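It is worth pausing here to work through a concrete case rather than discussing structure prediction in the abstract. The textbook approach is simple: state the sequence, then state the predicted structure, then interpret. We follow exactly that order.
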Amino acid sequence: MASRKAYIHKEPLVPCLDVARTTWKQISAPLLARQGSSRGLTLVEILVVLTLFLIVGATALLVSMDTYRGTSFRSDRDLLVALLQHARIQSINNICAGSGCKDGKAHGVHIDQSAHTFTAFQGVTYASRDISQDQAFNENPTTVATGATDIIFTQLTGVSNAQLITLTANGKTSVITIDTSGRIAWTN
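Step two, the predicted structure:
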């Protein structure tokens, strides 16, 4: 029987790069070469990309503006509810601040629709209030408040007349209800 010698291939099947002797240009040249085509973009390709960017940007702008309007509206509603709750708590606790105050006083909130302000005040009426104790807050000019303009909570009990305040802005509506016991409720 004849012996066979195994054939051993001494060179690798895949050529290896000698990293020490190879330059970046030699490695990247085949990757960057585009055979049979130009290296630039056509005007149509550029216009398509710009159109896509404009569509995505316009959509993002519309969504963000709607989110801002909704947040601004909820901020006005939350501010008015917080002022009403504060005035009621001040009345229940019989708080009286300022000079010449011995016994507690009633507290309330005045809504000035023309000046777009909410004012927390101390006194039986807005006209007879202690002006030095006013806390005025501006509302968003796009928010319209209709209904009650003066909500007053009596001393120690915090009761009030039943009243409704409706806030509207940019298609959003919220109704704030004050019942005869002074409880404050609102809708989104």
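Step three, interpretation. The mean pLDDT is 84. The radius of gyration is 37 Å.
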